[in-house]
Design goal:
Pfam families: HTH_18
Shape: elongated
CATH topology of the largest domain: Rhopdopsin 7-helix transmembrane proteins
Keywords: DNA-binding, Membrane, Transcription, Transcription regulation, Transmembrane, Transmembrane helix
Number of domains: 3
Order of helices and strands: HHHHHHHHHHHHHH
CATH class of the largest domain: Mainly Alpha
Helix content: 55-70%
Structural class: mainly alpha
Oligomer: single chain
GO molecular function, one term: DNA-binding transcription factor activity
CATH architecture of the largest domain: Up-down Bundle
Number of helices: 14
Number of strands: 0
Radius of gyration: 25 Å
Protein name: Helix-turn-helix transcriptional regulator
Length: about 350
């Protein structure tokens, strides 16, 4: 039986997954597909580098590895804000590429630079996770935040792997390096690819809309959050509440923060901050409270099934509907309907 090294198996699976994502109509899914292909190529190069030990693969490996944290961060960042990558993000990968191509003339500390790069973008993902992503459906924002945190911790773990590789070469002549790399790439890259694919499939596609050419600074630079006075926050929440009551936009299952911002003509960050200040909870929970209130009325006033009601209330999944319904009312939808129709607990004849 032919034995296929683990990196090649992972590379084949990632390539198939990339094809699956590419045939999806969403542009966000295509971005996730491109990232999956980059991971597949990187994993294949790792396998070739340790199987053949050719100079070209030793050169390509750090170059491709330097692109992964930047691309992972960009996939998440686009869900927060549509933007083009600034040239700042090419500085460290460019230095690493020059060092790899110029070896041994240029003695560049590639391991240290790669470790620093993964730490910077890992921390950047962790810092942006609490912020609501403007183009992610509000019903998925909590899941998106968890995914962003996992991706951030994965990049930090990759930095730890790079440190372990440096120690292996420093003290053990790199004897353990193939095993460390194979296991890390086999575990981390597929996990990050799946996370980014999940994000891509749940990010509102803005095909045809103009993408603002924002010069995004390096992720390590702090950008202060806008501050709102109590009066400003109250004014924004009044407009927000009026829109929800009069237009019932909460019934849109694909509602995002950016869609709300366009309807209110108010910056997305200001809406999120104002809702947090006034309600003391995040925007997605407030929207779900309106959806549950609508569902409660439908449960009492109509004979529609619970499935019909949760779909018409703006929820994508029954599990999310049941969880939010229980959080807000302390009951299941069936219990609420039964008690609302029979307040004295009498059974119907």
């Amino acid at each position: 039986m032919i034995a296929i090294p683990l990196p090649f198996v992972v590379s084949i699976l990632l390539s198939l997954f990339a094809f699956f994502l590419w045939v999806r109509p969403s542009s966000s899914a295509k971005l996730a597909s491109a990232f999956a292909m980059l991971c597949a190529l990187t994993t294949a190069i790792v396998g070739l580098r340790w199987s053949l030990d050719w100079a070209i693969f030793r050169t390509l490996q750090p170059i491709l590895a330097s692109l992964l944290p930047v691309c992972a961060w960009y996939c998440f960042r686009r869900a927060h804000q549509k933007m083009h990558l600034s040239w700042w993000h090419a500085v460290l990968p460019g230095i690493i590429a020059l060092g790899a191509l110029g070896y041994p003339i240029l003695q560049t500390p590639l391991d240290a630079l790669l470790t620093f790069l993964y730490i910077v973008y890992g921390v950047a993902l962790l810092r942006s996770a609490p912020t609501i992503a403007g183009d992610v459906r509000l019903s998925d924002t909590e899941g998106f935040a968890h995914a962003e945190r996992v991706a951030g911790y994965s990049l930090l773990f990759s930095a730890l792997v790079d440190g372990a590789l440096a120690i292996s070469f420093m003290f053990y002549e790199g004897v353990h390096a193939p095993y460390i790399l194979a296991l890390s790439y086999a575990i981390l890259l597929p996990m990050i690819v799946v996370i980014i694919a999940w994000v891509g499939l749940r990010t509102h596609s803005v095909d045809g809309e103009e993408i603002t050419a924002i010069s995004e600074p390096p992720p390590s630079i702090d950008t202060p959050e806008p501050q709102l006075t109590p009066a400003e926050a109250e004014t924004i929440v009044q407009q927000f509440t009026q829109l929800l009551v009069e237009k019932q936009v909460f019934l849109d299952p694909d509602l995002t923060l950016n869609r709300l911002a366009r309807k209110l003509l108010i910056p997305a960050k200001h809406i999120s901050i104002a809702v947090n200040q006034i309600y003391a909870r995040n925007l997605s929970k407030v929207i779900n409270e309106y959806r549950i209130a609508y569902a409660q009325a439908r449960l009492v006033e109509s004979d529609d099934s619970i499935t019909q009601i949760y779909l018409s209330s703006g929820f994508h999944s029954k599990s999310n509907f049941n969880r939010e319904f229980s959080r807000i009312t302390g009951q299941t939808p069936s219990q609420y309907r039964q008690e609302a129709r029979n307040p004295l607990g009498k059974s119907t004849p």
